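User: I'm curious whether this sequence folds into something compact or stays loose and floppy. Could you predict its structure so I can see for myself?
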Amino acid sequence: MGNIQKLNNVEHAQLKIKQSPCEADRVMFSPIYTSEMRALQSNFPLMFYKAPSDGLFTPIALFGFEQGENLFLNDERWTSQYIPMLIQRGPLMIATDGQTDTGEPARVIAIDMDHPNVSRDEGEPLFLEFGGNTAYLDRLATMLEGIHQGHTLTPLFVEALNQHNLITAITLKITLKNGQDHALEGFYAIDDEKLQTLNEEAVADLQRRGHLLPAFMMVASQSQLKRLIELKNATLTA
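Assistant: Here's the prediction. I'll summarize afterward.
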């Protein structure tokens, strides 16, 4: 756990967030939320990761074929048109501090001061000269609220898919230009055939609960596997 502090415009008045990728971005995949799947599907293959600890499925965007490989980082920048929210947020997060008038936990923005992108010298400022939020901080605050909602809504999406038996294990075997074989195992996807042949009642259920669109976005994203292979081959050529 880093040095987490409640963000405020006094102690953190001079803080900036560097926009270049850091080591935390060099990952094979990132968890994602249903609210961003429309933007994600044209950039990354979207799959599910099954946690060994509890067996729960988490939707993810795939960046590479091995641990620590992110094929969408090039010359210290992201080459994709969209970056998953959990990565975009950088060192910022939602925390709780006290209670609201209704007795619910009060949500505040917090910052991990140990995050490598926290700086006083370079990057996007969080506060204006006289203490107001910058447009950058306001944008991230809206994103953090989306992440907070995603923690509740995305598991409901996974639960609905499981109810209709739509999640299936996949194994991807590819041969790269240099003859090297790669087998991507331990991931899951939506069974496209089952989704296409659902009865009207099941389709209506998914539509009513807002799960049909993200399901089709995940299926559509499988076309991005070809792009991922091309990016991997490009690194070998380089």
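Summary: The helical segments are 37-40, 85-88, 135-163, 192-196, 200-208, 212-220, 224-237. The CA atoms of residues 28 and 67 lie 5 Å apart.
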